[in-house]
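**User:** My hope is that you can spare some time for a protein that puzzles me. I have put the entry right below:
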Amino acid sequence: VSPKDRGKAMGLYEMTHFLGMIVGPGLGGVLAEMFTIAIPFFVCGLLALFSSILVAFTVQETFTSKPKISDSQVGNVVVGLSPQVSFFDNITRAVKELTPYVSIFAGLCVARFVLAFSNSLMQPVLSVYAYEEIGISEGSVGMLFTVQGVVTLFATLPMGTAADLVGRKPMIILGKIIHASAALLVIFSGSLWPLLLIMMMRGLGRAVSNPSIIAMFSGLVPVSKRGKGMGIFSIFQNAGLVVGATIGGFLYDFSSSETPFIACAVVGMIGVLIVLLTVREPKQSL
């Protein structure tokens, strides 16, 4: 995909991802009710096997040249570090080898950690809050997440296209402001329908920001090193998800039921500030 169309392409990719996220939970529930609770796990395994076969026979490598590595270099190449220099120098050297846009790379990684952290502060406790504090039924709680997914599904492609036109950084900032605002509004919802609108707002915020942040990051690293770069990016995201979910549950149990949502909004706005101060559009996508 050419750099100018990368936001649109990532929007299409995210759109198909969220289609699966919408269909999967519903199908799993139907299978569990019709048969036994074990059946969805077997179906999950079969679908994973099918996807592996699909990738094996339909997906082609985007580059063909591979660097030759001697046996003596294998250890250092795998970890990307050298024992002769300091840890900080190792990290700096490794990033410089990946991209000429070191500051943008680092800023996006930190922002991804903070934004994933903020999102996971409320995600694990949202359904519990809706059920226990607002009094929404279990079926309606499921509907909340379905509606959020539907909004994200249909908004992602046009938002990715818009990012190609107006720039990725403004879309990242706008999406995360919407997402953080929705988190704070949850504690003022009080009933199903206001919360339903807030979940739609969350879905829109995710659709606005996600294609842009992935498209921008992929443009920082050349194709031959993009797998390693995206791996580093995913490490920051997954670390944020793990830490945020743990702290969110702790806050819900030991502080108050509203605290995770307030914390999500505050940390989300910190992430917006990090993007605003450290991230800029690269002069030329790689």
Q: What stands out?
A: The chain has one domain: 3-61+86-278. Confidence is low (pLDDT under 50) at residues 69-79. The CA atoms of residues 83 and 249 lie 39 Å apart. The longest helix spans residues 102-132.
